[in-house]
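User: What would this chain look like folded?
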Amino acid sequence: MPHSVSLITTIAAGLGLALVLGFVAVRLKLPALVGYLLAGVLIGPSTPGFVADLDIAGQLAEIGVMLLMFGVGLHFSLDDLLAVRRIALPGAVVQMAVATLLGGAAAWAWGWNLGAALVFGLSLSVASTVVLLKALEAAGVMDSMNGRIAVGWLVVEDLAMVLVLVLLPPLAGWLGGQSAPGPELWATLGWTLLQVAAFIALMLLVGRRVFPWLLWQVTRTGSRELFTLCVVAVALGIAYGSAALFGVSFALGAFFAGMVMRESEFAHRAAEESLPLRDAFAVLFFVSVGMLFDPHVLVDQPLRVLLVVAIVVVGKSIAAMLIVMLFRYPLNTALTVSAGLAQIGEFSFILAALGMSLGLLPAQGQSLILAGALISMALNPLVFAAIEPARRWILAHSATARRLEAADDPLAELPTTTAERFLSGQVVLVGYGRVGRRIAAALAEAGVPYVVAEQNRELVESLRAQGVPAVSGDAADPTVLIQAHVARASMLVIATPDTLDVRQMAETASLLNPGIEIVVRTHNEAEGELLRSEQRIGRVFIGERELATAMAGFVLGRFGKA
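Assistant: Here's the prediction, encoded as structure tokens.
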């Protein structure tokens, strides 16, 4: 085949076979992701028949990672990242340490040296952002507090892995690699931290002003093609520039590009315009992972493969779940975060390849990492589907879990000094995000008492410091609404973007207070119709419809028709 068309054949074969096998997987009640991975195995070098260009597939997959991280940045503001820093930063560090120790101990037991054990353990400690985002989107919890914590956790992991990738070459000699030990470790560390700090400062100080302005200028032309081109060019350009100039990974560069462009009023449109490209290249990412996999390792080393999968899916997840619960977050949050971390991905492959090039990791180590990645990625959607059954089972069989869920947490119940006007006839406001804040401000200005129920513990602490009554926890749990005194409230306002648990909240509120009025928000017409069918819910606000109604009212008012 002519070299000039290898790009076309790789894309055509990858997407075509992924479509067929993805369709088959869905019909068999399996995640489509399994079909994408198998498509990669079939066109990879380890199976007979057509072999796609692995280098080109890897670069296409990298574009997919960049576009996906850019989309995350468009929805994940700096305030969101700072809001979860107290749990994401220590949680990610401790969880990575536990997973590294587990993986390193297994490698040491197999007779590998210290360098190989360290690289192997670190490769198992970091999850794939691509897989996590797909799972959060499928579960409909991307914009929930659980989703924000999980994404923030992985952002911290990615930052840590950037540091590892930069420090590993100068450390290779000390760890038994091919290069001789060098004295430049501290200089390299300082230079790396300086580069990352410079990139973040540039993005926050300059990017937050320049890129929204650029998007506005392109929008003024009225050309949809130029708008889409601007979005893609900024995402890929910043990702490449961050790697070339500051040593930051493509993924993190694209993530910060999305964060600074979020300051523009056209951020929502930018997310929609880039969605088709993100989906197509994300499929190519999974195909490229399948191409790297050698099925022979399943036959040659089945017990080691099982141990790797157990460390990734079970060991790492349990560590993350315990860490989240120690921070007094609900069991549902702990299970969501642990499910998101029950896989490994793109950084694992990069680290394994670097370890092999430095003479630290044996070829068998890379095969085991790829096998663990492939199996854990395929299992991850099933792990997410098991969150709610697992939560019910744990609470039914574990007294310790029930105690941790109970209201011995000082933030899980209102202080005894709370004024009576907040305990009777008040509004219970579930969610204190962008919509909830505005509702709360309007209630405060009008002198209407309200109590906030919010999953973010840091927000609850901040609200209490301001004198606002607030309780910490998931309002789908009846104890949270009980602590918010919903039994004597006049209204329940559910302002969270996650509508999965709205019916449970409405059922609990109606049971405790049959006369309560319930108000809900949603972005989706179909969801709105389903929620309207619930007799307990009094009013459903659909974002686009309410915006259209307000604009139409304004226009008609100008013509005296309102």
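The first strand starts at residue 427 and ends at 430. If you want, I can go into more detail on any region.
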